[in-house]
From TrEMBL:
The keyword Zinc does not apply. GO terms for biological process: biological process involved in interaction with host; response to hypoxia; response to nitric oxide; triglyceride biosynthetic process. Its EC number is 2.3.1.20. It comes from freshwater metagenome. Residues 6-270 form the O-acyltransferase WSD1-like N-terminal domain. One of its GO terms (cellular component) is plasma membrane. GO terms for molecular function: diacylglycerol O-acyltransferase activity. Residues 309-453 form the O-acyltransferase WSD1 C-terminal domain. Pathway: Glycerolipid metabolism; triacylglycerol biosynthesis; Lipid metabolism. InterPro entries: Acyl_transf_WS/DGAT, O-acyltransferase_WSD1-like, O-acyltransferase_WSD1_C, O-acyltransferase_WSD1_N. This is diacylglycerol O-acyltransferase. Keywords: Acyltransferase, Lipid biosynthesis, Lipid metabolism, Transferase.
Length: 471
C-alpha cells in the first residue's frame, strides 16, 4: 500500500507558488582531488547510495477529485541523470558568479511530476574547486528520521568505499480506481482523515498554513507575540520569483571567544552579529530605526518533547540598540526565556544520531517557518552546528557548506547559518527585485562582528583598570 502524504507535507505542496517555491537548498564547495572529479563519478556515487533514501525515487500522485491527500508512488520512469545535472562557470569562477548562478537555480520550481529534488555539479571554480548545489522539496524531509541525500554521499575519510545498493524495481503504481477505493476505505476506518482532507481543500494552503502555525508549532513566546503582527519593514514586501544569493564565512574561534568572554551561547553571538548587520542595513536604506525598534525572527530549536522534537520560537532582535554588548545581552535574555532552550536545533546529540545532519536539520527549520503565518515575523533564521572534522566526497574534501533557506510570502530575506570544520558559513537568500543592496547587508555582517570584538576588548580594558584601582 502506498504511503499517504502527511497533512503538513500536503500543506507545503499546496503552498508552492511561482514566487515561493517550497524547496530548501545547499551549496557545498569541494577541493578537486588529484585524480579529478566529474559528472559521471557523481552519478555513480549517487546510484550506489540512493537506496538509503528511497523517497528520492518516489513522486507525488494526486487522488482523483481531491477526496484524500496525495500518496507517494515509485517513479517508473526514474532517470538519475535528469536529477543530477551539470553546469560550469567561466574559469576561474568567482564566489559572486557562483552565487548568481545559484540564485537563478533556486528561483525555479521543482517538477512535481518527478521526484522532488535536483543536484547540480558546478565546475570551473577558482583554486581547482567544484560545487554541488542541491534543491530538495520540504515534503521530502519528514521529521528527524529523514535523511538528506548529501548525508549519504559524504564520508568522514577520503578513501572510504561506497556501499552498493541492491537492484531496485519500482512498485506498480496504483490506478485511479485503486486510489479512490483506498481513500474511501480509509475515510470509513479513519473518518477524521476524510474531514481533514475536506477542510484542507476548502481552506486552501495559506489558511491551512496559518492554522498549523497557531496550533502545531508550540511557540514558546507569549500569546501576545503571536497575536501581534510583526513590524512592517523593508524585509516584508511583495516578492517575485527571482532570487539573489550572498554567502560569507568566518572563523568559528572568533564566535567562541566572544561566547566565553560574555558568558552566552555561540548562537547568541551569531544572532547579535546578524542583528547588527540588519541595523546598519536598515539605517543605510533610510528606514526609521528608534531605540525600541526590533525585528522578529522565527528561529527553530530542538526541544525535549519526543512528540515534537523541533519547535520554532519567536525572537525579537533589537535592531534599535546601538551598543553591541547591550544588544547581545538582550538577545541572550530572549533566548534564555525559551522553553527547553538547552538544546539548539542541530545540537551535538542530534548530529551524532543523524550523521552529517545540517542539510536535513536546516530543512526541518524551513518547514517550521513555513508553517507559521508570515504576518507574525519578519524573517526566518536557521543556525545548525555541523561536524568540526573534514568530510569528503569520493576523495574531494568539503571546504564550505552554505544552507539556502526558501522565502515565504512577503518575506524578502531568509538566513541560513552553519558551522563546519572551524568555520561559520552564512547564506542569505533574498528576493531579486526588492533587495538589490544585498551586498551591503553581507558587508555589515563583518562590520558587526568586528564592532562586537572591539567592544569586548574595550570592556576588558575597563575591567582591568577597575581592578587595578581597587588594589
Amino acid at each position: 500500500m502506498n504511503e499517504r502524504v502527511s497533512a503538513l507535507d500536503a500543506s507545503l505542496l499546496y503552498l508552492d507558488h511561482p514566487t515561493t517555491p517550497m524547496h530548501v537548498g545547499s551549496v557545498a564547495i569541494f577541493q578537486t582531488p588529484d585524480e579529478g572529479f566529474d559528472h559521471a563519478r557523481l552519478v555513480e556515487i549517487i546510484s550506489q547510495r540512493i537506496a538509503l533514501v528511497p523517497r528520492y525515487r518516489q513522486r507525488i500522485r494526486e487522488v482523483p477529485f481531491g477526496i484524500a491527500r496525495p500518496v507517494w508512488v515509485d517513479d517508473w520512469h526514474f532517470d538519475i541523470t535528469y536529477h543530477v545535472r551539470r553546469s560550469a562557470l567561466p574559469r576561474p569562477g568567482s564566489r559572486d558568479q557562483l552565487n548568481e548562478l545559484v540564485g537563478r537555480l533556486m528561483g525555479r520550481a521543482l517538477d512535481k511530476d518527478r521526484p522532488l529534488w535536483e543536484m547540480y555539479l558546478i565546475e570551473g571554480l577558482a583554486h581547482d574547486r567544484f560545487a554541488l548545489v542541491t534543491k530538495t522539496h520540504q515534503a521530502l524531509v519528514d521529521g528527524l528520521a529523514a535523511i538528506d541525500l548529501m548525508q549519504v554521499i559524504m564520508d568522514s575519510e577520503p578513501d572510504r568505499r561506497a556501499p552498493i545498493g541492491g537492484k531496485w524495481s519500482a512498485q506498480a503504481e496504483p490506478s485511479a480506481i485503486e486510489l479512490v477505493s483506498s481513500a474511501l476505505t480509509e475515510s470509513i476506518v479513519h473518518p477524521a482523515v476524510a474531514i481533514e482532507a475536506v477542510k484542507a481543500g476548502a481552506s486552501q494552503a495559506l489558511s491551512l498554513a496559518g492554522d498549523l502555525g497557531g496550533r502545531l508549532l508550540g511557540i514558546a513566546t507569549s500569546a501576545l507575540s503571536l497575536a501581534t503582527p510583526a513590524t512592517t519593514t523593508p524585509l516584508n514586501v511583495e516578492i517575485g520569483a527571482s532570487r539573489r544569493l550572498a554567502t560569507v564565512d568566518y572563523d568559528l574561534d572568533d564566535f567562541r571567544a566572544l561566547h566565553r568572554a560574555l558568558d552566552c551561547s555561540v548562537n547568541d553571538v551569531m544572532l547579535c552579529t546578524l542583528t547588527g548587520a540588519l541595523r546598519t542595513w536598515l539605517l543605510g536604506r533610510g528606514a526609521s530605526v528608534s531605540s525600541r525598534s526590533h525585528l522578529r525572527a522565527v528561529v527553530p530549536f530542538s526541544t525535549a518533547d519526543a512528540g515534537s522534537p523541533v519547535s520554532a520560537f519567536l525572537v525579537d532582535l533589537p535592531t534599535g540598540e546601538p551598543d553591541p554588548i547591550v544588544r547581545l545581552r538582550r538577545i541572550n535574555y530572549e533566548t534564555s526565556q525559551l522553553k527547553d532552550v538547552a538544546q539548539l536545533l542541530g545540537a551535538e546529540a542530534i548530529i551524532n544520531a543523524a550523521g552529517f545532519g545540517p542539510p536535513t536539520l536546516h530543512a526541518l527549520g524551513a518547514r517550521l517557518a513555513s508553517r507559521l503565518s508570515s504576518r507574525v515575523y519578519n524573517l526566518a533564521i536557521t543556525n545548525v552546528p555541523g561536524p568540526q572534522e573534514p568530510l569528503y566526497l569520493a576523495g574531494s574534501r568539503l571546504m564550505a557548506s552554505y544552507p539556502v533557506m526558501p522565502l515565504t510570502k512577503n518575506q524578502a530575506i531568509s538566513v541560513g547559518m552553519t558551522s563546519y570544520d572551524g568555520r561559520v558559513f552564512v547564506a542569505i537568500n533574498a528576493d531579486f527585485d526588492s533587495v538589490p543592496d544585498l551586498p551591503d547587508l553581507v558587508e555589515g555582517l563583518g562590520e558587526a562582528l568586528e564592532e562586537l570584538k572591539q567592544a569586548v576588548k574595550a570592556l576588558g580594558g575597563r575591567r582591568r583598570k577597575a581592578g587595578e584601582s581597587g588594589k
